[in-house]
């Protein structure tokens, strides 16, 4: 199934993502929010944004592989970060951009600073939709 990524004329230049992603009709995978949990169910990297991004990226890659997809099949991401500090948000974006999951962030993406996430000590969560 073809996926098109578009930055329409007249919209601002983006730092790597596209304003619009179009996937032809077909199978879609909606991943549960990917958290920085290890296989033991415990938070990885308490207080460490980089370690938590790395765990979330690894978990997301495993979830995508389970449905026969890679990051290039992702059509939408929402990154949640427990911080209102813009440099922290930029650092998280950059860390995801440098990860094996990086192709997922060329698509329609949103980065949000939030007050709290579901697990004590959780700093990062990633919501992903992929076209299969």
UniProtKB/TrEMBL annotation:
Pfam families: Ribonuc_L-PSP. SUPFAM superfamilies: YjgF-like. It comes from the Bacteria. This is Enamine deaminase RidA. It comes from Phytohabitans flavus. The lineage of its organism: Bacteria, Bacillati, Actinomycetota, Actinomycetes, Micromonosporales.
